[in-house]
Design goal:
Structural class: alpha/beta
Number of helices: 17
Largest sheet: 8 strands, parallel
CATH class: Alpha Beta
CATH superfamily: Metal-dependent hydrolases
Helix content: 40-55%
Shape: globular
Radius of gyration: 20 Å
Distance between the termini: 12 Å
Order of helices and strands: HEHHHHEHHEHHEHEHEHEHHEHHH
Number of domains: 1
CATH architecture: Alpha-Beta Barrel
């Protein structure tokens, strides 16, 4: 059923999958590039949208090209703090009141900018914005939910020396180490840094993520890093099933103890399962989906970016989000990259309700799921209280907009 855009903007939202390096303001990218002498294909917003940050992309490599420019201007404390600060405000302006910001700190790291300082800079920007936002009268009076955030550190499945000085030194110091072991070493070091940031620096480092090329770089190679995170009660999410099939999701669950799945777009694709018969492939996918549903392993769905990076989708109506919802999987909508995908949380929700004809009841479930399955930095009781406030606010807005919550 259609909903007014004003309603979709007003409802409280959570964004659990948003990359800091893909979510800059375009004006900020241009200004930082000018200040730092970083060359861009264009120094106008119109030019960059035509040449780099498009509405449509040919493939994943073209989509990822934008990170070459955004990350180039973010390798110092002031820039990281500014970008994080602005992202928090951009989220809150459309009533995204909970956000988990993820980034790969090792891609910014250098001898002059250690990883502790990187986490501090991002947290400083987010914390400053949060403090200012939560001083607003409606929040102080408890009439609308407060703004909260968490930080997720991303390890890369595949690394290259040109990624940053860190990766260059890693490959230099371990010239005979097999490529896979080098990747795994970097992931374990990141987990240790996240634990330190959380336990010693007091930073809300709430989760560990594995991102990057799935094919040829299986999640099982990073088992030791995820075991370390698991032993230290660090929550886990894995980019899986985005560019590869159900076996990638299976590995994320069995080898990485993942709490959530990033994308999961090919969850139901039996053609990507290496079993002899179609019957076996269907049974495998069914068992996997049932396990995910039963264990409430939440899927972070990013509609726009999937449409931009997976050519075979062709149009949004073919996205498996419809089936995820119909089969009662735990799933929530996310932006992935606000700048690169040219989207917002309100846009993602509007596309979902219009394309898949979501009822108010199903929309409510998807929205609340984002808060319930968040890696909230606080006690369980505090999280329950916060989620209750979210639910009450959502229901209040449904009454204001005269929208009935009819179960389906």
């Amino acid at each position: 059923m259609p909903f007014p855009r004003t309603f979709l903007t007003a409802i409280p939202k959570a964004d659990l999958h948003v990359h800091l390096g893909g979510s800059l303001r375009l004006s900020t990218l241009i200004q930082l590039a000018k200040d730092q002498g970083v060359k861009l294909p264009s120094f106008t917003e119109e030019g960059l949208r035509e040449l780099v940050f498009k509405n449509e992309y040919k493939n994943l490599p073209e989509y990822l090209l934008g990170f070459r420019y955004t990350e180039a201007v973010m390798r110092n404390p002031e820039s990281l703090e500014q970008v994080a600060y602005e992202l928090a405000y951009d989220c809150f302006e459309e009533n995204v009141c909970y956000v988990e910001v993820r980034f790969a700190p090792q891609r910014y790291l250098s001898s002059a900018f250690p990883i502790d300082a990187i986490f501090t800079s991002v947290n400083k920007g987010l914390a400053r914005a949060t403090s200012e936002i939560n001083q607003q009268t409606l929040i102080r009076e408890g009439r609308v939910p407060a703004f909260h955030y968490g930080i997720i550190g991303c390890a890369m499945r595949k690394i290259r020396p040109e990624f940053s000085e860190y990766y260059e030194m890693l490959t230099k110091f371990h010239p005979t180490m097999p490529e896979g072991e080098c990747h795994a070493l970097a992931a374990r070091e990141l987990v240790r840094s996240l634990i330190k940031a959380r336990d010693e620096q007091g930073i809300p480092a709430v989760g560990f993520d594995l991102a990057g090329e799935e094919k040829g770089y299986p999640a099982e190679d990073f088992k030791n890093a995820f075991d370390l995170a698991h032993r230290h009660f660090l929550m886990k999410t894995v980019h899986a099933g985005e560019a590869f099939g159900p076996p990638s999701i299976f590995q994320a669950i069995t080898d990485c103890h993942t709490d959530r799945i990033g994308h999961g777009t090919h969850l139901f694709d039996t053609s990507r399962v290496d079993l002899p018969t179609e019957g076996e492939r269907q049974r495998y996918v069914h068992a996997l989906a049932e396990y995910i549903a039963e264990r409430r392993i939440t899927i972070e769905v990013c509609l726009t970016s999937n449409l931009q990076t997976i050519p075979e989708l062709a149009d949004l109506s073919r996205h498996p989000f419809r089936r995820m919802v119909e089969e009662r999987l735990s799933c929530t909508l996310c932006t992935d990259n606000r700048l690169i995908s040219h989207t917002t949380m309100t846009d993602e929700i509007e596309k979902a309700v219009n394309t898949f004809n979501l009822s108010a009841h199903r929309l409510r479930n998807v929205i609340i799921c984002g808060f319930k399955r968040s890696f909230y930095h606080g006690t369980y009781r505090e999280k329950r209280k916060y989620v209750r406030h979210i639910i009450d606010r959502f229901d209040e807005l449904m009454r204001e907009f005269n929208i009935a919550d009819v179960a389906d």
